[in-house]
Amino acid sequence: IYVGVVPRSVKSPMVILSHHVLTAVYLLIPWHYPQYGWCMAYAMLVEINTWLLIAKRTVRLPLLEVLFYVSWVLLRNIWYPYLIWLFYKEWQNETRVSGTPWNPILTTPILQTALTGLNYHWTLALLLKPKKSKQL
Questions:
Q1: Are 40 and 86 within 8 A, CB to CB?
Q2: 58 and 72 in contact (C-beta within 8 Å)?
Q3: I need a labelling partner for 97 at 20 to 30 A (CA). Which of 1, 72, 116, 135 fits?
Q4: pLDDT tens digits, residue range 30-57?
Q5: C-alpha–C-alpha distance, residues 67 and 44, integer Å
Q6: pTM of structure
Q7: How many domains does the chain have?
């Protein structure tokens, strides 16, 4: 809500708002299908990286910077794409059980792909970000 009211509080408010809308829709799956709660728990592991981002901005320690970038690569660029495949397999299982591919679990690999796409967008932005020169 804060980003919507004060969009200048972040660098790219539309991307952040889109991310939060996708996540809110995504949360409906374990809400209505508790047996898939573990899927949301797996997806939420990415928040470790978010916490490290906040920590490194708050407490300027080199270790936090390293942990942030290591967790970025592991969680956002490796773990999240793996979850696309994992959730696709769950959709296939749900399709067998329900007898139709048009079941709500179809949304999980689709939304996971969208969120992974955002992660790669942010990774590219990080890589292309101009380095600030330190002044003495």
A1: no
A2: no
A3: 116
A4: 999 999 999 999 999 999 998 999 899 8
A5: 17
A6: 0.83
A7: 1
